[in-house]
Amino acid sequence: MRIAIWGMILFIGWMPVYSQDFRKQKLDFKERKEGVIAKYAISLGPQGLGSIILLYKNGKFYYSEGTDMDHVYSTGTWQQKGNTIVFESFFSKSGLSIKINYIDTVDVVQNQLFHIVKNEEGGLLTDALVQINNANIEYYPLGDVYTSKPISVDSVRVRFEKGFVSNWAKVENRPYKALSIIVLTSLDMKNFVQLNQWKFKKMGDLLARIKE
After folding, report:
1. Which of 185, 140, 146 is nearest to 166 (CA)?
2. Is the pLDDT score of 42 beyond 60?
């Protein structure tokens, strides 16, 4: 039952909520100090629902949409070509790298073959699924649920709710009690979305999304 519910969650797509143009905002001291050169926003109601775009002097962008309690975000690089701004997220859907740590002792808290997936700063990525042996088997570490129990494990990769998947990593033929998979990014992938080739047209103090 858990796997069925989780599968339904994975198929829920993310759609942008805005229906109007982004309007340029005044920068505060902290934003200017951090290198932000432009801020654009949309506000869609009293609950704080809306979107924000930050453009940095070093060519990076930050995008956030939703509320303080529930939001998606992206970060990457931006370029301006004439009056058009183009976004490229740091990751493609299959651009994540992972490494495997081999655990030689029994963890009384996570007494299972796979520990909960982490990012490189040690943050728990609780929505991550582990795919085993060329995706024939999936495992949800937070709930300790398999689609079927593996007889052996020769390769693994990680899949996230928003559709991101890692590269495959070969499991070494050596003794171990458990495997700890590390995604080689400091970002929280749970709410990360891909904005590759998103284009906006600058019109004075407005940014209008160009939908192709």
Report:
1. 185
2. yes
> Among the residues of 11-140, which ranges form H helices?
29-33
Q: Up-side HSE of residue 148: CA atoms within 13 Å toward CB? A: 7
Summarised one tens digit per residue, pLDDT across range 148-179 is 888 899 999 999 988 889 999 999 999 999 99
Q: Which CATH number fits domain 9-91+192-210: 3.40.630.30, 2.40.128.300, 1.10.3300.10, 3.40.50.300?
A: 2.40.128.300
For residue 7, the model assigns a pLDDT of 39
In the chain, where do the E strands start and end?
A: 22-25, 36-43, 50-56, 60-66, 71-81, 84-89, 98-103, 118-119, 129-132, 137-140, 145-146, 155-159, 169-170, 178-183, 198-203, 206-210
Q: Are 211 and 147 in contact (CB under 8 A)?
A: no
Q: How many CA atoms lie within 13 A of 141 on its CB side?
A: 27
Residue count of the chain: 212
- Region 94-190: CATH code: 2.60.40
DSSP assignment of 126-169 equals: TTPEEEETTTTEEEETTTTEESS--S---EEEEE-TTS-BB--E
Per domain, the residue ranges of the chain are 9-91+192-210, 94-190
pLDDT surpassing 70 at residue 86: yes
Please give the model's pTM, rounded to 2 decimal places. Answer: 0.72
DSSP-derived pairing of the beta strands 71-81 and 155-159: unpaired
